[in-house]
Structures are given as structure tokens and as C-alpha cells.
Write a structure and sequence with these properties.
Blueprint: E1 2-7, H1 15-28, E2 33-37, H2 41-46, E3 49-52, H3 82-92, E4 96-101, H4 103-114, E5 119-123, H5 139-160, E6 163-168, H6 175-184, E7 188-190, H7 198-210, E8 216-220, H8 248-260, E9 264-268, H9 280-298, E10 304-309, E11 312-317, H10 318-322, H11 330-337
Parallel strand pairs: 1-2, 1-4, 4-5, 6-8, 6-9, 7-8
Antiparallel strand pairs: 2-3, 10-11
Helix pairs in contact: 1-9, 5-6, 7-8
């Protein structure tokens, strides 16, 4: 069986480890052959691919990014569509696709599966917001990167007696903000799941300052202040029609300074959270998911993705993964809130 692999959507630490796990298990155990589509769904639509053998994946599990490249191409727009993709697969002798991606990628895979294509999936998102899996690879690395950055922000904040605002990724959920904020000892953590007023934020900042601390505020990019209606977005829409977020930290900093009188600076970590080598945990998880994805194709589990439940790798339908987001439970936020101020 000849299988095409793609990585789509935002890049993520651990993608190369998934590719390596798929190819090693598939070629050595399952008797499969592989090609890689270059640039995500764009490579599928344009039939842009490379051969993938054991030599091509040697030593890549520790590398960040993806050797296949990625994009946010919508496979149903432009020259795409299930008929065009099916023609490309038949011409290239490709029997099935393993799609590695997040919510947008898997939603597209689900539609293509409904149209008759043979696709299995591997969940990918540093936001850790897919409900059908306990953890996604890349999340652990992103949290560690954010925590390291906040540790540095705290030292410069202490030197100048400033309040520091650190903006992290998190479109709809605040898992990165919650974990990194708790690890770094943040005095306030602002996430999309919690409507928090600026008065409350100022109160936490002033309480920390009164104890002689230089306040650290962590905010997820999708946070909506209690006084606002929508997440901060100034950069239009992506290929799937979603607002491009970012900049809420820069918006909050002058408001905090005006309300508290404490000099405040903001830092947006942005894509640095996606870059660099994956953590040991993410390398192991990604490798296991990749191996399981090879088995999924062997077992013809079309329309399903591999997932982590406890310490076990299981298979779930795309619909279960796309049904709802895995948000931060109130109890988890309340635990963290005990440390605020």
C-alpha cells in the first residue's frame, strides 16, 4: 500500500517525530510505502510530493518544524475539491492519506472522507484544545518555552519594578496560559474561558505590587476582557475564515498602567512557542501516535484519528474530535486563581 503523509496548519514541535514514527513502523512492520505531500493540503491539490523512506526520516525526531512544510490551504477552494484530489491520488498510485493537523485540517479530512477518500488523522495543536485526546504533542514544548520566557521577563520586571504582560497562544482555550502561568508564578492569568474585568486585573496587579513584587500577567491571545465582545484581531481572516489573533497583550499593558500607575510592558511570544526542538515528552508521544497511524491505515480506520487516553493510544472518529473544544474547566482555573495577586 502506498500512503501519502501531510502536515497542515500551524507548525508544531513533534511533527517530524510523527512522520518518523509512521515511516519506520510502516516500512519495517506493515509493508507500506510512503510519499510526503509538500506544504500540507496545497501539496495534495497540486500533486507536489516527495518519496519518504527510512533514509529520509533518519534523525528527524529531535528537529522542530516539519520536513514536509505546511500551509493553511483549504483543499476545497481554488483548484481543489474531492474530485481533483481523487484524480491526483489515482495518478500517483496513492491508496490513502494520513493527515497530521489540528481542528481545520481534521475538519477538511472529515469532509473529504465523507466524499469517499481514504483518510486517517493524527491530532496536532500546541493549544491542546482537541476534546477527543487528553494531550496533543507540541503542547508540552510550548508550555516550557513560554515558562522559560516568563522566567526571564520576571527578572527584568524586578530590575525596573515594572508589571510585565506576557501574551501566549490560545485562540479559544487557555491551556498554555494556565500551565505556563502557574509554572512561572504569574499574578494573573487571563484566558478565553473566563470573562475578567480590567478592574479585577488591576486589583491583582496592585496586590502583587503592594507585597513588593513586580507583577506578571499572562494572557492568552483569545482572551476577551469583560468590557469587550470579541477577541482582539487586526490582521483579517485566515484561509478557513477565522480571525488572525494577536496583540491583546499590547492592548492591555497601557490600560493596566493607566489604572494602577505601575509602569507596564508587554511581550508577545507568538511563533517562538512553535519553534525549536520538541521536549522529550513530545518526541515520545508523537512517535507513538505516528506508529499508531500506520496501524490505522493497515486496519482501514478511515475517518478516524489516533488519540491519547490516559497512557494508551486509541482510535476515535473525526466527528468526536471536532464536536467541541476541550476548554479549561472552572475547577482548574479556580486552582490557579488562588495564586493570583
Amino acid at each position: 500500500m502506498r500512503i501519502g503523509i501531510l502536515t497542515s496548519g500551524g507548525d508544531c514541535p513533534g511533527l517530524n517525530a510523527v512522520i518518523r514514527g509512521i515511516v519506520l513502523k510502516g516500512t519495517e512492520i506493515n509493508g507500506q510505502e510512503f510519499v510526503g505531500f509538500k506544504g500540507g493540503w496545497r501539496g495534495v491539490v497540486k500533486s507536489d510530493l516527495i518519496e519518504l523512506g527510512r533514509a529520509n526520516v533518519r534523525g528527524i525526531s529531535k528537529e522542530g518544524g516539519t520536513i514536509l512544510g505546511t500551509s493553511r490551504t483549504n483543499p476545497f477552494e481554488g483548484e481543489g475539491g474531492p474530485e481533483r484530489i481523487a484524480e491526483n491520488l489515482e495518478r500517483e498510485g496513492i491508496d490513502a492519506i494520513i493527515a497530521i493537523g489540528g481542528e481545520g485540517t481534521l475538519a477538511a479530512a472529515n469532509r473529504l472522507t465523507d466524499a469517499g477518500l481514504k483518510i486517517t488523522g493524527v491530532p496536532k495543536t500546541i493549544d491542546n484544545d482537541l476534546d477527543a485526546t487528553d494531550y496533543t504533542f507540541g503542547f508540552d514544548t510550548a508550555v516550557q518555552i513560554a515558562t522559560d520566557a516568563m522566567d526571564r521577563l520576571r527578572t527584568t520586571g524586578d530590575a525596573h519594578s515594572r508589571c510585565m504582560v506576557a501574551e501566549v497562544m490560545g485562540r479559544h482555550v487557555g491551556w498554555i496560559a494556565l500551565h505556563s502561568g502557574m509554572a512561572a508564578g504569574a499574578h494573573a492569568i487571563l484566558i478565553p474561558e473566563q470573562k475578567t474585568t480590567m478592574e479585577q486585573v488591576a486589583e491583582w496587579v496592585e496586590a502583587a505590587n503592594a507585597r513588593g513584587r513586580s507583577p506578571l500577567v499572562v494572557v492568552a491571545e483569545g482572551f476577551v476582557p469583560g468590557e469587550a465582545d470579541d477577541a482582539h484581531s487586526e490582521r483579517g481572516l485566515d484561509a478557513f475564515g477565522r480571525p488572525r489573533l494577536g496583540g491583546i497583550g499590547e492592548r492591555l499593558a497601557p490600560m493596566i498602567e493607566e489604572m494602577t500607575g505601575i509602569e507596564t510592558r508587554a511581550t508577545t511570544l507568538g511563533h517562538i512557542q512553535r519553534g525549536g526542538v520538541p521536549s522529550a515528552y513530545d518526541r515520545v508521544l508523537a512517535t507513538r501516535l505516528g506508529m499508531a497511524a500506520s496501524d490505522s491505515v493497515l486496519e482501514e480506520r478511515w475517518g478516524q484519528m489516533v488519540a491519547l487516553r490516559g497512557t494508551d493510544i486509541v482510535h476515535v472518529g473525526f466527528e468526536e474530535a471536532l464536536g467541541k473544544l476541550k476548554t479549561v474547566p472552572q475547577a482548574r482555573y479556580d486552582e490557579a486563581a488562588l495564586l493570583f495577586g
